[in-house]
Every structure is written in C-alpha cells, then in structure tokens.
Amino acid sequence: MFEMELEDAKFWKDCVDAIVNLIDEGVLEVKPEGITLKAMDSSQIAMVSFSVPKSSFVSYKVESAEKIGLNFDNLGKILARTRGKERLRMSSEENRLELDFSDGTTRKFKVPLLDLSVGVQKEPKIEYDATVKINGGQFKEILRDASLVSSHIALEATEAGFFVEARGDSADMRVENAKSAQTVSEVQARKPARATFPLQFLDDISKSCPNEGSMTIHLKNNAPVKVEYAIGDASLTYYLAPRIDVA
Amino acid sequence: MFEMELEDAKFWKDCVDAIVNLIDEGVLEVKPEGITLKAMDSSQIAMVSFSVPKSSFVSYKVESAEKIGLNFDNLGKILARTRGKERLRMSSEENRLELDFSDGTTRKFKVPLLDLSVGVQKEPKIEYDATVKINGGQFKEILRDASLVSSHIALEATEAGFFVEARGDSADMRVENAKSAQTVSEVQARKPARATFPLQFLDDISKSCPNEGSMTIHLKNNAPVKVEYAIGDASLTYYLAPRIDVA
Amino acid sequence: MFEMELEDAKFWKDCVDAIVNLIDEGVLEVKPEGITLKAMDSSQIAMVSFSVPKSSFVSYKVESAEKIGLNFDNLGKILARTRGKERLRMSSEENRLELDFSDGTTRKFKVPLLDLSVGVQKEPKIEYDATVKINGGQFKEILRDASLVSSHIALEATEAGFFVEARGDSADMRVENAKSAQTVSEVQARKPARATFPLQFLDDISKSCPNEGSMTIHLKNNAPVKVEYAIGDASLTYYLAPRIDVA
Known about the structure:
3 copies of one chain form a homotrimer.
Chain A: E1 2-6, H1 9-20, E2 25-31, E3 34-40, E4 46-53, E5 59-62, E6 66-71, H2 72-79, E7 87-92, E8 96-103, E9 105-112, E10 130-135, H3 136-147, E11 152-158, E12 161-167, E13 172-178, E14 184-189, E15 193-198, H4 199-206, E16 214-219, E17 225-231, E18 234-240
Antiparallel strand pairs in A: 1-5, 1-7, 2-3, 2-6, 3-4, 4-18, 7-8, 8-9, 10-14, 10-16, 11-12, 11-15, 12-13, 16-17, 17-18
Helix pairs in contact in A: 1-2, 3-4
C-alpha cells in the first residue's frame, strides 16, 4: 500500500514517456526512498535504468518496498491527457493503481496491475574511454539528419571532438562537433572511441531528453554506448549494444 | 427564390459543421423568419434541431417558405475554404444554391439542390430530472479522456455534481465535477439521473460547441440526453438515445 | 571542379524545391556565370527552366562549364534539414557533390552524381495574348478552392480581369479577380485568352512561389500557359500544356 502526490502531473508523464520509448510493460519498484525501474527492451539490445527520489514528490508514503507491474503504453496515454498544471495523486488498491488528477475537477483513472517477473537486471560494467556532453536537442537533430541516409550511425569521440557518421546509397553524412562547438559542453577521450548503433534505438533513447537539457554519452570502441540525462530530479540511464562496425 | 447575406462567412461554416457532424444530407427550411432544420442521423439514434433567426443576416429576402435539400458534407468543405473575414451571399437559382464569398476577390460556388424528403421530425417530449451547464471545452476534454478507456460513457447528475464514467480493459475512469467546480455553472437534479451513451455520438454532437461557450445537458434515468448550445445567434439542440446501462 | 558558397542554405533549399516539384532527377548546368536547368516532367506535359546568377553566391569558383546529374528528390530532403541560418558550401568531388552546412557544428553530406543525358530543351516560343500578375499566395488559395470541385481548371484573362473556373458534380466554381482587385497587380489582354489545365500540375508549378511574391501568368487561347516567378535572385519559368477545353 502506498500513496504519493506530485505537484505537476506533467513530470510523471515525462518520466513514463522516457520508459515507454523502450519498453511497453515493466515493473516499477516502489521503495521508501524512491521509485526505480531496470528493464531490457524486448529485443534485448537496449536497457533502461530509471530512478526518481522521494524528494520529487510533495507527499510520499511508502511503508515497505513493493513491485508493481504496469502497462506503460497504456499509462503513458492516460498521462498524456494531463492539461495545464494538475496535481497527481497515485495510490495502490488491491490490484490496481489509482491516478487522481485534480485542478478543480477531479479525474480518476484506475489501471490494472500486471503479474510480471522482474529479471535481475544488472547494469553492464564497462570502463569507458570517452565522454561527450551534448545539448539534447542538438543530438536529436543529428539523428534526424542521419535518418535520411541510413538506419545505422557511427558515434565517434576523439581529442578533436565528437563525430557522427552515416553511410547510405543516397548520401554519406558526417557531422562534426568540434571540441570548441557551443553544442558540446565537454569532450573527453583518453583514446579515440567509435562504435555503430541502430538509429531507431538511439532515437527511442534520446527522445525524452529535454531539448535544452544536457545528454552525456559514454563511448568505448565497439562497446555498448551509455546515455544519461535527467528529467527534473529523475535520472535516466540507457545502454545500447553496438553492431559490428562495417565502416 | 431567396437571397441573404452574412457579414462573416465563418459563422455559416460553423453552423453547417454543427449539422454535418451528424448528417451528410438534409433539408434546410428557409422561411421568412429564419432558417431551420430537423433531422435524424442515418442510424436513427441521434437527432439535430437547428435554427438561425433572420436577424443573424445583414440582409435577408425570403418571400415564401422553401425547402432545399443539400449535401452538407460538400457544402461544409466549400465553407471551410473561407479565409479571414469574408462576406457571404447565398441565393437560390432554379435547382442550385449559389454561394458568393467576397473580400475584394469574388469566389462563387454553385451547388446542386437535392430532391430529399423531409420526414416530419418531432422533437421528443421528455420531462427531464436533471440539468447541467458545463463549459463546452471542458466537456470535449472529458470525452477525449473517456475515449482512452471505452466506446461508451455514463453521464450522471446528482445533487452533488456532474459525473462521467467509463469502464474498459485498460482502465476505469471517473470524472467528478463537483457542484462548486468552476467548469460547471449549474447543476440541478430533482432526483439523480444517469444514462449511458455511445461516445462517438456525444463527440459528434459536442464538436461544434465553442470551447468558451456553455453547453446545457438534460438528463433522465436511461432516457435520451438532450444537449443544447449556441453558435452566435444560431441554436443547436441534439437528442441522443441511451443504451441499456450495464454499469 | 567547382566550389561555391551561400550565406543562407534555405535559399538553395527553396530553389531545389521549385525544381523537384516537377522533376525527380535532372541535370544542373554549372557555368562560370551561374547555374541553370531546363527539364521536362516525366509525362512531358510540363517544363521548368531555372536559373540563378553567380551573384547570388558569396563565393563562386567555376572554371569551366560542367553538367551534373542529380537526384533532386534526395537533395531536397537533405536541404530540408537546414535549420536557422546556416552557411552552405557546395563543391564537386570526382563523382559526388559535397554539401557542407555550418553554423558552429559542421554537417557534411556527399551525394552521388548521376549519369543523365540532357535532352536539348528549347523553351516554346509562343506569342501570348494576355498577361496577369497575381499574388502567389492568392493563386495557391484559388487552386485549393478549385480542388474541391474538379481536377482541371480554366484560366481566363480578359480586359475585365482574371477568372478561374472549375466544374464538377459537387459544385461549379468561378473566382473573379477584377482588374481593380488588390490581389492582381496587372491584367493585360490584347484579346481574351482562355485555356484549361490539369490542377495538379498548376499546383506543383506554383507551390514554391513565395506567398508574398508576385507570379506572372501568360495566356493564349488553348495554348500552353507560361508561369514565371522569382525566388530571391533565382528565376523560375514553367510551361504547361493545356487540355482541350470542354467547358
């Protein structure tokens, strides 16, 4: 049994969107100190780790840790209906999650809890060679550029900057973010690191990063990329497996 | 033979939209005192009664009552092409309705009149138990909320307020507009009244209500709902049959 | 080998759009004095003649005339990705055209050159009877009006003004731009001229005319229409064959 309240339902909408971009169903771990989720996407090549602290809520009553299985796709559609600034109260009933939106009118939704197993989801331990901090909106624009050319893109960080390449029949593309460019606030590379990834997954992963926010990308040659960003006080970490680079 | 002119074609567009949401073809009754229409939708579960007084027009010449059959779907598309503030002159030719839009340039459309029979369309006489006045935009938002959950919704008015419920596999929904809520300006209920309606029809019926305008909903247990609103000086009244409430 | 630079990539995007509306692939003639293209659409009923002077570029190095075959459809999609004010540098490599967009970040695209034959494309020599100068946005609105009614429209110029007609089952349409209307800045007609054209092609031809810009239409009875407009310093001329007027 738990009960918690947010001042702005939009915040929870953004969090759920960042999860649903990768997985349709999953298990939220509701704990006394906050809420977390770790899950692989259905094709097992990407992973999301989500966490929001108790302090993001205006009231937060969780006596003991609880795991609740949810259809995030369904939940995201309900949250998408929030308008203006609405309070959101979430509470558990027997086998349902109740969402109460209020701003004068009260709108109550009760969604069924699902009986899902949480696979133990350890995050990969990788010693990365390079770290890039880039503006979220800028990275999403680069992905859109690349989508004209190919379904895969190579991410590369060197001492000189951060580079993105895509090759296709209709064109080849190369985007150069020099270390000094305004769009990257940091490029660190102990040694050059490069790997190629499926564009669609990078798109899903970065979609919820605020355009004005910063996204941190960790790279190592032909290793999974690690992408991190924040939505308010919530933190999102994603891993995505590379494909063998044929470039 | 008639001839009438409106200062703003947009007004007539809104009127025709309010009709076409329910019926594709129908008969306008053009009378010396104004224009009316009464019609059932093709599935015979909803009815629209439309009326606009002579005074809405800047000039209005109708010598004797005339019935003109029109394809409102077609007429609505032509009216949707109006831009900015255009004058609209309508006149009858032999077997066509002429629409002249003017704002410097003149655009003339002639649409064929249809040979349609007007069934005598009496409005149902129901003694309603409850009346709700709600903001049009608010009611449309509630319908959108409900569409996530079910294809039917229950409307309920009691002394406490106006309530909307929908139940589905993905979620249950309940919207509570307390009597004191800003979104309802009036809730009167001699006794509680509740009935369930197909969402799509409520959507069609309320679509043309101005978001800032007021919509009046009359309810009686398991009886047809009566919905009224105004577009400028034109008045729209709709009736919609309930389905047996399985809630 | 050539190299040229534009201050605003958006200008080149607009030029390529004006070409791609009619043809998917074609040959640009890059000459010391500027760039030109003449091409028929694939159905051979419309022709586009494009020309942009050297002076439109901030730097322009072309030693000898060169013909480069391009997929404009592909090129247009890449150019559509330009954002804000970006510089665009274009240069030829062996068998590729390189496009470098820069505004801090550099985005490079290399598109393959195609081996296409330039048919000798002479422009038709027609002595026109009437000339109309009309606001580009206004003409596009008229085409949208007409699309409700028919797939063909008649253009007519007389001493009285410029008239557009379309006839269909759902309605007949006539748009009257009197000589004095604000939307036409000039109507000259030695004798009345009228011809009927496929709407889709007129739409393709006029699509890239700036809404605030002026479009010149030359007419002669049942002869091809000639349409001219400017995009910045670039000039576009189109010819479109009439169909036999059954009006």
